[in-house]
Amino acid sequence: MRAVIQTSVGGPEVLFVAEQPDPAPRPGEVLVRVKAAGINPVDGAVRGGFYPLLGEPPFILGWDISGTVAALGPGVTAFKVGDDVFGMPHFPKQAGAYAELAAARADEIAAKPAAIDHAQAAALPLAGLTAWQGLVRHGGLQAGQRALVHAGAGGVGHLAVQIAKARGAYVIATASPNKLDFVRSLGADDVVDYTKGNFVEQVGNVDLVLDPIGGDHVDESLKVVRDGGVLVSLLNVHDATRAKAKARGVRVERMSVVPNREGLVELARLVDAKKLMPHVAKAFPLDQAAAAHAFLATRPIGKVVLTV
User: Residue 241 in contact with residue 219, Cβ under 8 Å?
Assistant: First the structure.
């Protein structure tokens, strides 16, 4: 099979296409003929050696896949050859999504939403599960609550805004000036231009904050959470912030996304009900993975994908 590999860490230029052995599905796995692979910020961090999840190269990047079941491993009964599926298998171990074929655990994939194509479906798993798990599993978001989603036009943020609205929340999102209209189009009730002063001066009394930025930004976010509310961070939280939160009865959750079929099924249900739509900023062919990584670094609206 053709796959994008890297033999050293560095910038996008270290990515190149090469022939690799076809993977074989192990017990409990399926072999997926990949039609599209999503690209996420974690991919760039691993590629550059800043987040060594996969150890030393060579390796094949990527976790988000959408494609068709090509073969079944022993014991798999939930799918059949020819089924269209999507998912985020094996995270944070190697999944090898940037390839023509990828093996995936059957309990870490789900039927692809019928309402979208493979490129859109490949944009959904990692960012969508992050948003879903952050808002629902960790945040316990309920109808009628006020939720603040930072970076509302980003890969996670633009999906989180839609998921929160689908759950009946009043949604506030932050964004840069050129992305405000896009975030409004997702259904956000209030959009804050973070370049016009501190968001703390414009937002308050929220039940839940989803923060993908981390560090000092979490401390600032704590100021707008009501006593007894929830603050969910995708990155590290300072001990001092946790102490301030505890004193006010605010629950702080530092989360990492995990593969989960239940969440994928819920995301697919929302897509097919026209309550959730992943936005693909640009799709690149597999042999332009380096250009796709460079484009992602410009912080486009939504997601970037590779088509296979």
Answer: yes
The H or E element spanning position 148 is strand 146-149
**Which parts of the chain register pLDDT below 50?**
none
pLDDT score of 214: 87
Residue 301 exposure: Cα atoms within 13 Å on the Cβ side: 14
pLDDT at 141: 98
Q: What is the pLDDT of residue 197?
A: 82
E strands, 20-131, in order: 29-39, 65-72, 84-87, 101-105, 109-111
Angle at 261 between CA 109 and CA 48, to 5 degrees: 65
Residue type at 273? A
The token duo for 143 is 């109808």
Task: Name beta bridge partners: 84.
Answer: 68
Measured distance CA(265)–CA(277) in Å, rounded: 14
- Taken in order 188, 194, 195, 197, the sign of the CA dihedral is positive
Query: Within its chain, how far is the Cα of 290 from the centroid?
Result: 20
Residues, the chain: 308
Q: Which helix (H) or strand (E) holds 307?
A: strand 303-307
Looking at residue 132, its pLDDT comes to 98
**Per-residue pLDDT, 160:** 98
Backbone angle region of 249, left / alpha / beta, with phi > 0 → left and psi within -120 to 50 → alpha:
left
Signed CA dihedral, 96, 100, 103, 104: sign only = positive
SS3 content of the chain, % helix, strand, coil (to 5): 30, 30, 40
